[in-house]
Specification:
- With about 270 residues, the protein is α/β, with parallel strands linked by helices.
- It has one domain (about 5-265): Rossmann fold.
- Helix content is about 45%, strand content about 20%.
- The chain has nine helices and seven strands.
- It has helices at about 5-15, 20-30, 35-45, 60-70, 85-95, 130-140, 180-190, 205-225, 230-250; strands spanning about 50-55, 75-80, 100-105, 115-125, 145-155, 195-200, 260-265.
- A seven-stranded mixed β-sheet has the order 3-2-1-4-5-7-6, with helices on both faces.
- It is globular and about 50 Å long.
């Protein structure tokens, strides 16, 4: 019962035509609570001044697409360790006519750029990297003075949906850690060269319910039988309004704990 194989299969279906991929992005923007938190942080910190941005571990390119469309004056570089993701994003963005974003193969532990970027975005990446201290140092070196690092990552409050005393393990593959402690990750960033840090929990009580309704339960059913894809529209017709309300509650509420973290670091 895993998330990543289903995500890959859905990506292949929606990648057949550019308009389907854009539709997929829009659906993810609505369903994925982390996207709500990322977009809010971007709106709070940036306008359309000319900027250089790094999408560190861009994957399917959802966030690079958002930045490229929202900020046409920006120059966006997306990097990933998977060649197929890099080729896929370069091909799609060319077809979509977005010339302010380009993608390259890059291991973040070996990122060696000096004061290039005003903004670095890292969404669901750091939990996959063992040498995280090296990556945080590389991020600090790559940012210009006043530059912002924005991270979305699981917390140590069950962010990888790990079932203790169970053979099920994590719902998501390839995590080298179950999640970050809210204070420890800020200490790591300060040690790496960030002068200011802030962090808050996402996926609090309402967000956890929304995630189960919008993502976990449908994926578990698809793992059980691909035939369930026929019923997905009817499932979301019922659950979607509740998910939107819960996502908004999570976004604008304050949570003492949560399974996700939104972390900021500023270099000065």
């Amino acid at each position: 019962m895993q998330y990543d194989p289903i995500k890959k299969s859905l990506g292949e279906v929606f990648n057949r035509k550019p308009f389907l991929r854009i539709l997929f992005y829009k659906l993810l923007d609505l369903l994925l609570l982390r996207t709500w938190h990322i977009k809010r942080a971007v709106r709070q910190n940036f306008k359309n001044e000319t900027r250089n941005a790094l999408d560190a571990g861009m994957g399917f390119g959802q966030y690079s697409f958002y930045l490229a469309r929202k900020f046409p004056k920006w120059k966006i570089r997306g990097v990933d360790v998977k060649e197929e993701q890099v080729a896929d994003c370069n091909g799609f963005f060319q077809k979509a006519g977005l010339t302010n974003a380009a993608f390259a193969l890059q291991d973040l532990t070996k990122l060696d750029e000096k004061e290039v970027y005003d903004f670095i975005l890292s969404v669901d990446v750091m939990e996959h990297i063992e040498e995280d201290d090296a990556v945080f140092r590389n991020f600090a070196n790559a940012l210009r003075t006043g530059g912002l690092l924005l991270i979305s990552t699981p917390s140590d409050k069950g962010g990888s949906d790990v079932h203790e005393h169970s053979e099920e393990g994590s719902f998501v593959d390839e995590h080298v850690r179950d999640g970050y402690n809210i204070d420890a990750i800020q200490a790591q960033l300060r040690k790496a060269g960030f002068s200011k840090t802030a962090a808050h929990y996402s996926y609090g009580f309402p967000g956890k319910i929304a995630w189960k309704l919008s993502m976990k339960y449908p994926i578990l059913l698809l793992n059980a039988s691909k035939a369930f894809i026929v019923l997905l529209p009817f499932y979301y017709l019922i659950t979607f309004p509740f998910c939107l309300i819960l996502n908004a509650w999570d976004l604008y509420g304050t949570h003492k704990t949560g399974t996700g973290l939104i972390v900021k670091g500023v270099k000065s």
